[in-house]
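REQUEST FORM: STRUCTURE PREDICTION
Request ID: SP-0412
Submitted by: Lab K.M.
Chain count: 1
Length (residues): 182
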Amino acid sequence: MKDLGNLKYLLGIYVFKSKDVLLLNQRKYALQLISEVGLSGAKAVSTHLEFNYKITSVEYDQYIGSSNDLELEDATTYQRLIGRLLCLTITRPDICFSVQVLSPFIQHPKTSLWEAALRVVRYIKRSLGLRVLLKKGTESTKLIGYYDSDWASCPNTRRSLTGYMVKLGDFSISWKSKSTSQ
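STATUS: Completed
RESULT:
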């Protein structure tokens, strides 16, 4: 074994540690993602998804006879982008919901889904400074859990949506939202 000194980078995550603070961010990774997608010159947006944005599957569009939103010819670009966004959620819990909404369509992505994923990247461009900040404190050992559900609210399947979040002190340590069968 070899001592490499204080930890600075780990799996693309910048780590800053002081006496009372631990800071984690992926600014370099986010800048690389923005550049690879080709949005370096694009205008940033203040929200990660449009308000009341309805996402539908290819099967649903075929069922209702809609043909204005075509399936992408090459699904790998969408799959790669969603995978990169998933990696970014480690230090960016603000985009977790958007990525969770876009990821079920990874096998058959449509043009509208690609545009929605690019909007998430444009949101990241606006908020590059966001990071996870962990502080020492007296409340750091208090464990709090939240749970919520919404009956039959998924527009595609009419399944119920549930979600939870667990906090240790002021910091989120676990969260998930999912569609459940009725």
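NOTES: The longest strand covers residues 171-180.
Reviewed by: T.R.
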